[in-house]
């Protein structure tokens, strides 16, 4: 016997592989969708019993042992386990109800940080706690759905599709409400976790660069200087003219070593940026560019030192790229503030063709800005011009 579809004449929502939840508007009462819903409802009871037992055990054991050494670690481990139960429930709902719910982001600091940090993050994990709440409220619902479907299979056969559809829709709502990620917040946590890794890697690379520059540059020059002065000291009495010549050479080495140290210090954080701000610092960078550069900084006040430093090094690296690769005749740098964002635009009239994956450091700049919630937009058609727009969050400078 064929009965009309529950809810005939309207389009219901179902998460499916081809888009957001969409059920056929008309279908036989006992088609594949209905049997999947019936199976899901019958499985509710055993799944709910297990989930309820797990949740009660976790809360009882965790609460009783909280004051002991193993209490909090045990509770944290159980919350991680509840995450896995939630994953299984999402898979069951996806398979039988067609509900596609995104998996929550991995627990932050799961691969980094100390034991105390990982313990704390696990204890305040919203995904684990919501899954426990889901397991606690499911037992009475599981009993109701199991009994209703079982009785309907033998007594209320004609209306079972309607009942199955209604109860399955409530199940879908519970899965979406309690087992779905907290969308923007949890996605943002995952992004920040990824960005943290980028920042750590970048800082490590910068430290290695500074170490290499010191070892191969100023340090090697100072070693040679010390050896030269030692030889000059030995010749001071027996050959004053040669000693004077060696001292003069050593004086030149000192000047070069000082210049290398100044350049290295400028690469870490230039004094002019600390003392006079972006306008003076960027003008200094522009003066060293092989292309004439116009600099316009329109800022009433200075941003936080960290944001100011990122802006400086971004422009510095872009101007280095212009010197090396652009074949430009002129370039321009504009810096201004719009509401709570610091905007930077660097333009040149060169040959264009720059790409984020072109090996010119553009990808590294984009990653660095993304790590602090910034944006990096590159527009460089073949033949030019090249326009790079960077955007950073504005943070007030501490006074």
Q: SSE layout and pairings?
A:
Layout: H1 32-64, H2 71-96, H3 115-123, H4 126-154, H5 160-179, H6 183-235, H7 240-268, H8 271-276, H9 278-287, E1 293-298, H10 305-326, E2 331-338, E3 341-348, H11 362-370, E4 375-379, E5 386-393
Parallel strand pairs: 1-2
Antiparallel strand pairs: 2-3, 3-5, 4-5
Helix pairs in contact: 1-2, 1-4, 1-5, 2-3, 2-4, 2-5, 4-5, 6-7, 9-10, 10-11
Explained architecture:
The structure is a single chain. The protein is an alpha+beta fold and 399 residues long. It has three domains: 32-181, no CATH class; 193-268, Single alpha-helices involved in coiled-coils or other helix-helix interfaces (Up-down Bundle), CATH 1.20.5; 271-393, Heat Shock Protein 90. Helices cover 62% and strands 9% of the residues. The protein contains eleven helices and five strands, in the order αααααααααβαββαββ. The protein has helices at 32-64, 71-96, 115-123, 126-154, 160-179, 183-235, 240-268, 271-276, 278-287, 305-326, 362-370; strands at residues 293-298, 331-338, 341-348, 375-379, 386-393. The chain has a five-stranded mixed sheet, covered by helices on one side. α2 packs across α4 (126-154) and α6 packs antiparallel against α7.
Q: What is the mean predicted local confidence, pLDDT?
A: 77
Largest sheet: 5 strands, mixed
Low-confidence region ranges? 1-26, 109-113
Percent in strands: 5-15%
Termini gap: 80 Å
The amount of helix comes to 55-70%
Coarse shape: elongated
What structural class do helix, strand and pairing data support? alpha+beta
Supply Rg: 33 Å
Strand ordering within the main sheet: 1-2-3-5-4
As for the number of domains, it is 3
User: What's the SSE pattern?
Assistant: HHHHHHHHHEHEEHEE
Question: How many helices does DSSP assign?
Answer: 11
Record field, number of beta strands: 5
